Amino acid sequence: MVSDDDLFARLRSYEGCPAASGTGRYPVNTAMISHWCEVMGDPDPDATPDPAHEGPTAVAPPAMLQAWIMPGPTTAPGAGPQRSAAYGELLALLDAAGCTAVVATDCEQEYLRPLHPGDVITFDSVIEQISPRKTTSLGTGHFVTTRTEIRANGEPAATHRFRILKYRPHHAADASRRPRPVVDRDNAGFWEGVAENRLLLQRCTACDRLRFPWGPGCPDCGSDRWETAEASGAGTVHSYVVVHHPPHPAFAPPYAVGLVELAEGVRMISTVTGAGPAELRIGMPVELEFARAYGPGDAQQLPFFRARHQRDSRQDAPCREDAPCRQDAP
Ligand code: ZN
Fold it and tell me: 247 alpha carbon to ligand 1 midpoint, in Å?
């Protein structure tokens, strides 16, 4: 096993190595300047005209510097900025040491000359500095600073320092800190059903519409008359999101939050168990189950949906930190 000191020494050996180089995807242009100003809420992008140049926006706002060196969202491999082998090795070393998470922490820019429409941007980045191991609220890791020299038509135009934290995230999920249901007089019947392993919907007795979540009135006809209808427990994943950040002490990211469409036609948000975030699919069949989600000593149950493809193997499935423990289920 590599000691912290050995790792730091290896990481520091990359200081001064190239990180990336390339040419801006587009020359400086008024269309991108207008879009940037619009997104930033700048009502008057002409506020800093350069008397030496003609045109409605003769100087690019300095703060949009990084926009000129970013690849496009779908840039083909090899077509955007070329990351160096050294930078790839540095990130791989950090990954291998468990620092698999990354967050951008800050950037500093120094402007040497204005950028005008038509300027062709080129740049070179170096790995400037690796910090000793630091412990932050996100986790423990190393700050990596890159310094990028940006040129316009070959002339020095700006320096851009960018700092990231590559860190080992805190993974210990504490189930007891999962947010508690808020029970009020409008939804108390739902939670009474959950305590009896029943998923209860509301059915409007005026227009027959089923609804979820519970509420005092029918969203269709406005009637406040209703009865309960028990869901069969069958459903499909209508949609889902995978949460990587921000961390919550009760959950170990990445984890998926599903929007499940019940066989009865209503939808509910729920944890989907038995399938990792990479395995979840829209349309995947799921089946209702109830589990004590706050730990074995806590009687509060929650409804979950288990991906049906794992049904046959779940007897052997180990308990996962981010899924309710089946052994805890009643
Ligand atoms: Zn109704």
Answer: 40
